[in-house]
Design goal:
Elements: H1 2-34, H2 40-68, H3 71-88, H4 95-109, H5 112-126, H6 131-156, H7 161-176, H8 191-198, H9 202-231, H10 236-248, H11 250-255, H12 257-264, H13 266-285, H14 290-296, H15 299-318, H16 324-353, H17 356-380, H18 383-389
Helix pairs in contact: 1-2, 1-5, 1-6, 1-7, 1-9, 2-4, 2-16, 3-4, 3-5, 3-7, 6-10, 8-16, 9-10, 9-15, 9-16, 9-17, 12-13, 12-15, 13-15, 13-17, 15-16, 16-17
């Protein structure tokens, strides 16, 4: 009974924390443009600060966790600090101050996902629970938040609500942490040793590049999809509906992801998810109607809902057992950090010099290159590993 209770509280944490993320990130670019008057290049710089800070700060949160052996306490600090800082952000003015403000929020927000993933992965493996059944509640929370906040901002005429709901979501997530496991798995090798070992694994490194090219555009889309919806004639409520369909469709696919992976193989699922993303971005390049855009949002379930769990499994299989924790951390830094930052900045730049459709054309080409690299990974893997991932 205690295990089941903890399991439900972990699911609730993902719901509320991703509710906060869903309230903020999809409409952040619209907020910076309409309420703060920034150019798209400036918007790209502000938004890119989130993943750039993540690259450098996430390892520090990890080292603090390893040193203190108190990841749950650190998670409380990260969530409460980000929640409090979010309340003050709408009052900021001028580009340099807005950039600095989002960077400070990112310092604490960057610790939430890796610390919670470390605890939840450790718990799910120890008690034979599926991580996908935990992570899907994040997709549900994200989807519901965008839908609600889209309606609220349109009714009130104020986009500042995105920060208030962000803070509320993280505040509620704090309540669930009291039932979280106190510790994650012990670290068996140092980060430097693990990194040295992984740099010798060519298939693993090549998949990191693929993940950079495929997952970077997926994350950048979270920031610019609202702008795209408004460009094709949608409304703020329409943005909420689109994200409800997109993020909400991830949950059922995450629920059955392990069954599909077991049936088709990890590599096939990774390629399928990547191909759906590439096709979706290519469609957006050709300026589809609002109706078509809404209909294609559910493709995100097939792409993201299957790609995330399959990619995580592939990373673990490509890395030697003794450095898997380091491998997951490096994978997160490259995709969620470097890839997110690069494509977010490039997205804002391309919207300014070209248009939002051109940005999606660029995303599609990069994703296609990422698919080719996965095929090379499959060819380069050792026979015993290939048997596990094919």
């Amino acid at each position: 009974m205690k295990v089941e209770k903890t399991y439900r509280f972990i699911q609730a944490f993902y719901f509320f924390s991703f509710f906060g993320f869903g309230a903020l990130f999809p409409l952040l670019s619209v907020f910076l443009e309409e309420e703060k008057g920034l150019s798209h290049t400036q918007i790209g710089m502000v938004i890119a600060a989130l993943p750039i800070i993540t690259i450098f700060i996430q390892p520090l949160w990890g080292m603090l966790s390893d040193y203190t052996r108190r990841p749950r306490i650190l998670l409380m600090v990260a969530a409460s600090s980000a929640s409090l800082l979010g309340l003050f952000y709408p009052a900021l003015q001028l580009f340099p101050v807005l950039l600095a403000g989002i960077a400070i929020i990112a310092i604490f927000q960057a610790g939430i996902v890796p610390l919670s993933d470390s605890l939840s992965l450790s718990f799910s493996q120890s008690h034979r629970k599926q991580y996908g059944n935990i992570r899907l509640w994040g997709a549900v929370g994200f989807a519901i938040a965008v839908f609600i906040v889209g309606r609220v901002t349109e009714e009130t005429g104020s986009l500042s609500w995105i920060f208030y709901f962000f803070s509320i979501g993280l505040l509620f997530s704090l309540i669930t942490l009291f039932q979280f496991p106190k510790r994650a798995d012990e670290v068996t090798v140092s980060f430097r040793t693990g990194l040295t070992t992984l740099l010798q694994q060519k298939p693993f490194l090549l998949f990191l590049v693929s993940n950079f090219l495929v997952f970077g555009p997926i994350l950048a889309n979270n920031y610019y999809f609202g702008t795209f919806i408004l460009t094709v004639g949608g409304t703020l409520s329409g943005v909420g509906l689109a994200f409800l369909l997109a993020a909400g469709s991830e949950a059922p696919f995450m629920k059955i992801s392990q069954l599909i992976i077991d049936r088709l193989g990890v590599i096939t699922v990774v390629i399928t998810g990547s191909a759906v993303s590439a096709g979706r971005w290519l469609l957006y390049y050709f300026d589809p109607s609002t109706t078509v855009v809404y209909l294609t949002t559910i493709a995100q379930g097939l792409s993201v809902g299957l790609y995330i769990p399959a990619a995580l499994i592939l990373v673990r299989e490509l890395a030697p057992k003794e450095v898997r924790a380091t491998a997951v951390g490096l994978y997160s830094a490259v995709g969620n950090g470097i890839g997110n930052a690069f494509f977010t900045f490039m997205g804002g730049f391309l919207i300014d010099v070209w248009n939002v459709n051109g940005m999606y054309g660029f995303f599609s080409i990069m994703s296609m290159i990422g698919i080719v690299l996965v095929l090379v990974v499959q060819r380069w893997t050792k026979p015993e590993v290939k048997e596990l991932i094919s």
